[in-house]
Specification:
five-stranded antiparallel sheet; alpha+beta; 390 residues
């Protein structure tokens, strides 16, 4: 009879479109217990799950793939994140050095990931992970994956690494100071502070050590750079793309030079990244860029992490300008834009610096009223037209 009940639950999960949400959740409870999670933990996690349209809406649109690269870079690598990052690296300098020594991963890259993923631990996310994953598992898309992540999240609690209330993070199930998904947490999280628990929520050493362990397992090569900006020869029509790798000597023969002048350097093979086309900044990217890419599977994300790591180290902005006459805004400017929109009557709701549907609708109304092309983008043109300062 027990087997029949579980089979019925699995059948419900396999057809979420025809099954009610509550029936799907009941099926999740049964299958999660069957997967080895204690019934007490399952009941505590899933006793009051409600359908969450916000989670489902977020699952259909990710900024790495929808946002222009100059917008994406502007709010991820801004002056405040650089300034805060340098302070945090100084505060946790001994930990970062120990992590770098243990795993061979550049501490500036570790700090950059920490900064982008949670603003150095300040913003770890507010979604209750079991509820978010239950919604995703019952949405009919990637059901098996989300069910597996739910099981992994609850096994972390059963193991004693975290309390149930610690499972707060992103809509997609990532949580902690460097935003591990539950299955990655179970596989690669480390107890770097040696307190007996792998706590990526409250322990900075555990979070940074686990991130370094992840990159090390992803093929990081100690002592090598992620890459650097290059200058293309006039009329370049050769291969591009992270995967179209060639030796540094080959790229030199194709006419590439460092953006600041001089010969190319580095060992191993590299790909040529042109995220805004051949008229924008170009980058020669090596194996360590691929390791960073594996963290989020988006080239724009990997470039943001790589550039932020250089800025934390004292590097400058890209030498080549983005090919646009409407640059993106920093987080501070986005917040100011929302305030200005509200002040002018283009209601966007509470100003929080996060650009969602309400903000884009307000921008479109403002653009129309100001005689600008209607885009809904939080760009420099509409910001300056509303009196914003660079």
């Amino acid at each position: 009879m027990k087997r029949l009940a579980i089979a019925a639950a699995c059948a419900l999960l396999a057809t979420p479109a025809s099954a009610s949400f509550s029936a799907c959740v009941n099926g999740l409870k049964a299958s999660t217990v069957q997967a080895g999670v204690s019934r007490k933990t399952v009941n505590a996690a899933l006793s009051d799950v409600a359908r969450d349209e916000k989670v489902l809406r977020f699952s259909r649109a990710q900024p790495e793939y929808k946002t222009p690269i100059w917008d994406y870079m502007a709010f991820l690598v801004d002056d405040d994140r650089i300034r805060t990052g340098r302070k945090m690296m100084k505060k946790h300098g001994s930990t970062l050095k120990a992590v770098e020594r243990t795993y061979g991963v550049d501490r500036y890259v570790i700090a950059a990931l920490w900064g982008v993923e949670s603003n150095y631990g300040e913003n770890q996310g507010s979604f209750f992970i079991p509820h978010a994953l239950a919604n995703l598992a019952c949405s009919g898309r990637r059901t098996k994956f989300w069910r597996g992540e739910l099981v992994s999240a609850l096994k972390i609690v059963d193991r004693g690494d975290l309390r149930m209330k610690d499972l707060k993070g992103s809509w997609a199930g990532a949580f902690g100071q460097t935003q591990f998904i539950p299955s990655t947490y179970r596989r690669l999280a480390v107890d770097f502070d040696k307190d007996g628990r792998r706590d990526l929520v409250r322990s900075v050493p555990d979070a940074l050590g686990s991130t370094a362990n992840y990159l090390n397992r992803s093929g990081w090569r100690s002592g090598q750079a992620w890459g650097y900006e290059v200058r293309l020869p006039s009329g370049y029509s050769g291969p591009t793309g992270r995967k179209a790798k060639a030796s540094v000597a080959t790229w030199s023969k194709r006419g590439l030079k460092k953006a600041g002048g001089g010969k190319l350097t580095g060992s191993g093979t590299a790909g040529l990244l042109v995220p805004a086309g051949r008229n924008g900044p170009a980058f020669l990217v090596f194996r360590n860029f691929d390791a960073i890419y594996s963290y989020n599977l988006a080239e724009s994300y990997a470039l943001a992490i790589s550039h932020l790591s250089d800025r934390l180290r004292g590097g400058k902005e890209f030498r080549t300008a983005w090919p646009t006459n409407d640059l993106g805004l920093s987080r501070e400017q986005r917040l100011d834009l929302q305030k200005r929109l509200n002040k002018r009557g283009f209601d966007v709701g509470e100003a929080d610096g996060k650009v969602g549907p309400a903000t884009r609708a307000g921008i479109r109304k403002a653009e129309a009223a100001l005689g600008l092309p209607v885009t809904g983008r939080p760009g420099m043109k509409v910001y300056r037209a509303l009196g914003g300062k660079i």
